[in-house]
Design brief:
Helix content of chain A is about 30%, strand content about 40%. With about 250 residues, chain A is α+β, with helices and mostly antiparallel strands. In chain A, the strands form 3 sheets. In chain A, strands 2-13-12-4-7-9 form a 6-stranded mixed sheet. In chain A, strands 1-3-11-10 form a 4-stranded antiparallel sheet, covered by helices on one side. Chain A has a 3-stranded antiparallel sheet with strand order 5-6-8, with helices on one face. Chain A is flat. The chains are: A alpha+beta (about 250), B mainly alpha (about 300). Strand 5 of chain A pairs antiparallel with strand 5 of chain B.
Chain lengths: ~250, ~300
Amino acid sequence: MMFRLAVWIFLLAAPVHADEISVALTEQQISIDEGFSGARIILYGVVSGAGGAERAPGDLVVIVRGPEEDLAVREKRRTGPIWTAGEPVRVAGAPGFYFLGATRALNDILSPDERTERQIGAGHLSVSLIDAAAGQRSPDTLEIARAAIVEAMSDRALYREDIGAVSFLDGGLFQVAIDFPANTPVGPYRSEIYLLRAGEIVAWRTAPLYVEKVGLERMLYDLAHQRPLTYGLLCVAMSLFAGWLASVLFRR
Amino acid sequence: MQIYLPIAELSVNPLIVLMMGGAVGFLSGMFGVGGGFLMTPLLIFYGIPPAVAVGTEASQIVASSVSGVLGHWRRKAVDIKMGLTLVAGGAAGSFIGVLIFQRLREMGQVDLMISLAYVLFLGVVGGLMLVESIRAATKDKDAGGRRRKRGHRGIIAALPFKVRYHRSQIYISVLPPLALGFCVGALAAIMGVGGGFIMVPAMIYLLHMPTNVVIGTSLFQIIFVTALVTVLHAVANQTVDIVLAMLLLIGGVVGAQYGVRAGAHLRSEYLRILLALLVLAVCGRLAYDLVATPSVPFTVTEAFE
């Protein structure tokens, strides 16, 4: 509580110019440790400047996007009685995590062109095909792949759009809660905050955020990926020891 | 409470995983089966990625086989020479198996292959077990089996490179045990099983080993083959989750001890029918997932080079 209070005081003390956004996150790093089962971060901010508290503060869009990863999208199709995955369409540029919060429905506050330019909304993510085969170069392929990615990632709780998640409090203060699921990918994240009035972006800010494995989780993950032979032998040694220990403990 | 798995990269309820390990361990102790063929599908149903389920289960089988083999070792019921012959075949088989696994993983088809392999094997094993246990329960003797046995002996007796296995008191070609080891090693790599459910009947009916050394020798070779499979999966695919393995083997070894005791007091024919039905139910669920119209018409995975 004291921390939140300190944030508010800090934000309110910001100098008043044209439209400006000041933001702070409750944490700038999410640590994945042995007990990690997801995290919630609150992004606080204040809109200050021309008009300030007297006039309507406008609309806000808050985006948090995770590290990009190349993905393979395969259409499922029937092969005899069973469903199999077809040839992959490989796509670059999709973030491993995407959260969008807004004060109102996006169609009401921003033009489609602007949304595409700023990648506002999962349907407007700027993705591209990686060395696509000749048969895959139709413009439809990319759209279908994008839609498939958005659906699959939403299903894993990694993509989320929450209209109404951003709420204005008093005097241009706002806050939004962002939930990170247990399967959140590690890497650098970026939050983007846009202030809109009459369909125009009048101010924007970004703030970095990191998701990292720490402690034992990090040690094991690094070992498994950097020294896989050592890790494999460690697993076997542990199993041999556990098996021997069990037979000693339970020997009649 | 939740525990985050460093390799599977998701969080699980440790009590549920311990209970799964315990339940499968109980069944394996009661029936003297390895349990890998039940554990891996259970992990998949729980949401563990199939590739991680297979790699991790191999390391759990190392532990359960070690605790199982020691008793047989003390009773000198292990044919070391035969075990090592099987391991030689098994090493080659697990190399090939992990290569196939790695290739299919890069093609994005490994989940399908694991499911298909399980549907096939659980269907066959569960079906045979059901027929056999119903026969045992109704005391209906099968006369046809013996004739088939002689046919195999004819082919195997004609093969070259004969070796004497003193412990088993047999004199046969090394080729059948090498081939058997190879097949079971490949299965271990692809399915995350020990393969005892194939190895034990094959040793009795194909190699004509005496029944008192069969279980010990099977467990002996399973330790080496699954240990190798664990290391190969760790190196080639990074799909062995040490935290998950630890939870499973704690549950598994404790469950197995109680299973052994419970098995000694209960009539096994009817329990075998139940086990067969359980195996067929797991098979049915996997088969349903393959055939049912998927809720999402696409798969989206990490793209390999």
